[in-house]
Amino acid sequence: MKRNLITKISALAVTILALAACSKDILTGADPYAGGKEPLGIGFYINYPDPGSAKPGELVDFYVKGLKGKLDKIGFFVNNTAVEIISAKDSLVTIKLPEQISSGDAKIVVGDEVFYGPRLEIEGNTAVDENYGMVNGFKGAVYDILPNAGGFIVAGAFYNFENEAVDKKVYRNGVHFIDANGKTSGNMNFGRGTFGGGYVRSIAKTNDGKFIFAGALGTFAKRIVNNIVRVNNDGAIDSMIVEVINPGSDPKNSLDTVSAFNGGVNTTILRAFTTANNKVIAVGNFSTHYKIDYNYSSRDTRKYIISSARNVIRMKEDGSLDSTFALNNAGANGQIMDAVMIDNERVVIVGAFTTYNGKAANGIACIKADGSVDESFTLKGNITRLFGLSYNSTLKKLAVSGIFSGVGASGKVNNVALMNIDGTVDESFILRDIGAGIVNYAQILNNGQVVLDGTQESYAGVPRANLVILEKNGELLQKYNSLGPFTGSVSKVIETKSSLGEPALLIGGSIIQFGSKTYGNFFRLEIKN
At residue 424, does pLDDT exceed 50? Predict the structure, then answer.
């Protein structure tokens, strides 16, 4: 026992000596960090400013350590906007906010070193409505919003809403109906919706109170569809019973309940519109129209009638192709990105194409009610690509966004153009400098203001959120643009009222954050005038 103890002690001593030797070797080696800069020791030691929110022109205190001997070398920024330093002590910096600035994080710059600090809220006339009933929002993107019966039908690529789809009997797939306060409404029930895959890209309402859902739909509420379906005002599929081939002896297999809208296309529908006589116009990058021939179909096997029809087609009320509008047409020679319907059932499309049905079309084309191209409706200038298109039916104006310059008679319209329904450009709106950013979405409000969303990080030289509200002439007013940052993209904006009765916007898209809070692809923005 004693011998074993001595052996263990000896082994331990050897180990200690070996470690000491290793330590000695490391200490006598070259310092890999030698020659670097000494740390400046600057930092914000309280993680909030005083006050926590302020208006342009007001003074704000930040609590900072380590500024002694460097007070004449610092630069102070809020949301990457330089601010005036009124006084600076070793532990306190007082700044004055400029007239043009948005909410964001503070930072101190000394030479080429940056020290980040707390967030400062800039007060203004816009704010996310904190009294809105929606909390978690949608799990997945929102693409379209349609007002209906005091609430809103919301469509997209989502699979849950407010975490309600935890029960196997609750479905929130691709389309959902919410009330005015953002809560689930039981007035419409869409069954399983797009359960199993797919999404709804566009909603349209018929004159008899039914609804068209279009997008990438293989099934809807367990019924086979071809990217488009019609539902009743309660949300159930508009269905009918048809006779089919019965390959066996069971009489039940002689009949089948199917979608009453017997039509569709071979790939995604971007937009769908309804006409005065309940016909349906579909727009996308598809090439064929599908219709099921039930005379040669069984419950398990479908026989399709396939017709060549490209990009913009019109279907009759029963879903069959209206060949007087489009049949064996050439369509666009490039990708269609977006579309709107304007007066007299004309459809305007935008994208990366130069011809439509063989007619010159510089990224934009207007298709008349007979399916022909209105060659007088053009956008002349240096067009690279058009991304987005929206229409305000009250003002009868379109908003086109993309990458272009030199548009309009003056040649001064760039990247966003407001157009009249005759195809002329409203040159009173001029977009200011957005740097290297791209505008993906533009929507004209009923008061003439324009909502923009894109990749731009500044507007007219001032750092701003990607989501901004502009005036009729393109000017940005500080009072409507104090919020930031915005993380995500906008697909739809609907005008509504806030919980206090103020003007407000419902904004849907692929939205992660606005200001200091996160959102589930949907929120309500209050605008005080």
Answer: yes
Q: Give the tokens for residue 284.
A: 């996308």
Average of per-residue pLDDT across 235-262:
95
The answer to whether 498 touches 507, Cβ cutoff 8 Å, is: no
Q: Which residue has the tokens 């990105």?
A: 337
Residue 96: count of CB within 10 angstroms of its CB? 14
> In Å, how far from its chain's centre is CA 13?
68
- Among 283, 288, 293, 154, smallest CA distance to 211 is for 154
Please state, in angstroms and as integers, the Cα–Cα distance from residue 353 to each residue in 289, 383, 515, following that order.
Answer: 22, 10, 37
The model's pLDDT over 469-507, given as tens digits with 9 standing for 90+, comes to 999 999 999 999 999 999 999 999 999 999 999 999 999
Q: What is the DSSP string of 31-52?
A: -TTTTPPPP---EESSSS-BSS
Give CA–CA dist 355/371, Å, rounded.
15
Distance of alpha carbon 317 from alpha carbon 275, whole angstroms: 10
**Strand ranges in 378-445 using DSSP code E only, listed in sequence order:** 382-392, 397-405, 416-420, 439-444
pLDDT tens-place string over residues 218-232: 999 999 899 999 999
Token pair listed for 94: 């007082």
Place 39 in a pLDDT band, splitting at 50, 70 and 90: low
